[in-house]
Amino acid sequence: MGDRFQVIVDLDASEADAERLARRVVDRLVAEGIVLAERTGCVPGQPLGHPPGPHWERAVSDDWDFKPWDGLAVHTRRTGFTSGANMPGAALCPHCGAHTPLQDAQWRRFSTAMRTWHDTGAASVGCPACARAVPVPDWTWDEAPLAFGALGFEFWNWPDLGDDFRARLAGLLDGHRTAYVWGKI
User: pTM of the predicted model, to two decimals?
Assistant: First the structure.
């Protein structure tokens, strides 16, 4: 069966802002009863997370068919969020919309930039079609989603998060762009 996860990633938060924004979001989720304030060992692969609260259903779509059995992990450092074992087949340029197949040399260019971004917080990859330098967090991906940010809210083994909830959470992030990544391990 495996574990499933959903992550709302703030694409624009700096490392300096991540803690403040994370507190704002968690405080709101606790106030709404979506998660509990105390942190427990309720998320796979993380030491502590926030368990579901008494009103967790306020975060999920109307057609949920199970209750969450794990919690929310909050990431406040540079992280590359992936959908699991699969990687995308192409990167999409935000400027010209060109699809760059991620095979061999192109994949090496992107993976080198991703490592540089993770280590330093800044890296770009030039689009082969329009020649513009595109920061790693600004690329979008086909098939298997990826997102890069210093702030992520990772819900483990919850029903599908509702669109309105995702929009409300994004609204707490100072107008920042967000990405939604989901997967199963």
Answer: 0.93
